[in-house]
Amino acid sequence: MQQTEKQEMVLGLSIQQSTDQELIEHIRDEYRNDPLFFMSLCITDDPHDQKNPFKRFPVDKLPYIKKFVHAFLKEPRTVILKSRQIMATWSFCILALWSILFQKGTKGAFISKKGEDSRKLIERMKFVYDNLPEWKPFVNFVMFPQPKAECLENYSTVYAYPQGADQLRSQTFSWIFSDEAAFQDDQEKTWRSSKPTVDGGGRFIACSTPNGSGNLFYHFFKDPSFNKIEVHYTENLFKDEKWKQEAKKGMRQKDWEQEFELNFLATQDNTIFGDFNYLIHVKQQIYNPQVPLLVGHDFGYNRPGISWCQYHNGVFRVLKSLLGYKVTLDKFTEEAFKLEKEYFADEAVITYDFCDYAGNQPNKQTGTTDIQVLNKLLEKKNRYLRFKNCLDLETDFNLMRDFFTKLHKGEACFQIDPSNLNIIEGFRGGMHYHGDAQKVCGCTKANEFFEQERDYYKHLNDTVRYVITNNFSMDGVIKANQEKLEFSTTKDKRFNYKGGLDINARF
Question: How many other C-beta atoms lie within 10 A of the C-beta of residue 6?
């Protein structure tokens, strides 16, 4: 049966209030077997549309709903990072109603910041239920003192609790939905209380817009054991450019970034690179085999890093990057070489490598330096490291900031491929000053469930910094005649840009 035919049948049944039990059971089976079909017939309340607030749930305009359904039915733990106004909360209220109407023995739980907020989720369920056909199974809605919705016919119930509810700990639920999870003050207690459900085979779903990086929701998003769903407002087919312009009115840019652009770090105070703009600087980059590769290396056992960049047509481009974790320099470099061959198949391409001057410090145990070790590995590829002594961090930062504010022939002079998530987050606020001392900090706040490595964002950002600061000066970041690089063939640490730009003054 086609979707439109099913809809016509159900709507017709609603109007006629048919008593044909066989037909009613047939329609119930359609609902039971197809949650998306059920959702398409539900009525929701849209407070943003004053002329027509009550409307059918637009499944066909929200392609990401299929992911929500899959997570609700199948995934043990899911984190949903979303823009505002994409109907995520309505989606799970409808799915909760579907579960108690058509699944026997279901026990679900809503978690929200306050008891009043969680009660409103039960009220949304009731609104949807009240607008279903008359033959629907009976559901009893209780708002006080303990909000719940129960279908006695199926022995199924949905409860609503405030954050951190101890009731979760003493019971095993079929599913738990944590709404606006990043804004709950007691996220950790909520998760601890939800563990019996997850361990017992139930599903846990944390859904929210971003709210900084120092919270458990952010950890969930970074945890590979979680099924991850990202929904940007542009995936809602109702959200066009006209809508965007209206929605942005009266909003600060950093609030827009957090609420709609999925930026965890938009509201981070004391950011180092405040001029970095995701919409301007993050673009898909295509490797050009006719242009030299500029490779930045950052040493360290805990968090070694490497990035592959190019400079052509007046634009500095970050193509790819790799961040290691507790790995020796030789093993990390070996892995980097494999990826390099995969990303940039033309081994004949000219490649230049840059690093931190501090890599010259000898290891107390071996007597060798990181630069010596890496140079030995690079020699196999007829490459070697170039480096300079950093004058001071703030000078280097100013040089990088200069890139973020400049255009060349209408293009941003700094561009980075969206695959480089760690570097992007670092520029968006992960790299920030800590306290009055203006000490650079590249990490997030820790909690008992996760501990970010100190300077988590710093290392990959530094690889880009070494490439830029080894090759540019403040007075010549952008010039129209800078078309390509012309490197020295001798083993010194200097090279020049074709066109006569003096970049050696800072060595």
Answer: 17
Domains held by the chain: number: 2
Q: Rounded to whole angstroms, how far apart are CA atoms 43 and 94?
A: 10
The CA angle 422-443-256, to the nearest 5 degrees, is 65
Token digits for 281?
Answer: 């600087």
Q: Residues 287, 341: contact at Cβ < 8 Å?
A: no
Nearest-angstrom CA–CA distance, 92 and 62: 14
Listed in sequence order, the residues at least 6 apart from 287 whose beta carbon sits closer than 8 Å to its beta carbon are 310, 319, 343, 344
Whole-number Å distance between alpha carbons of 114 and 243: 30
Q: Are 230 and 362 within one domain?
A: no
Q: Specify the amino acid at residue 240.
A: D
Q: pLDDT per position in the chain (507 positions), as tens?
A: 455 555 555 554 444 444 567 777 777 788 888 999 999 989 998 877 778 889 899 999 999 999 999 999 999 999 999 999 999 999 999 999 999 999 999 999 999 988 888 899 999 999 999 998 877 889 999 998 889 999 999 999 999 998 877 778 878 899 999 999 999 888 888 888 898 889 899 999 999 999 877 678 888 887 888 999 999 999 999 899 899 998 888 888 878 888 998 887 766 656 788 778 877 899 999 999 888 899 999 998 888 999 999 998 889 999 999 998 888 888 999 999 999 988 887 665 788 999 888 888 887 777 788 888 899 999 888 888 888 766 577 778 888 888 888 888 888 889 999 999 889 888 877 777 765 434 555 544 433 333 344 467 888 899 999 998 888 865 544 332 233 333 333 333 333 333 222 222 222
Residue 402 backbone dihedrals phi, psi, to 5 degrees:
-60, -40
Query: Domain limits at 389?
Result: 280-497
CB 67 within 8 A of CB 230: no
Tokens of 67: 């992911």
Residue 18 belongs to a domain: yes
Are residues 236 and 59 in contact, defined by beta-carbon separation less than 8 angstroms?
A: no
Judge whether 270 lies within some domain.
no
What SS3 class is residue 123? helix
| Phi, psi (deg, nearest 5) at residue 172 | -110, 120
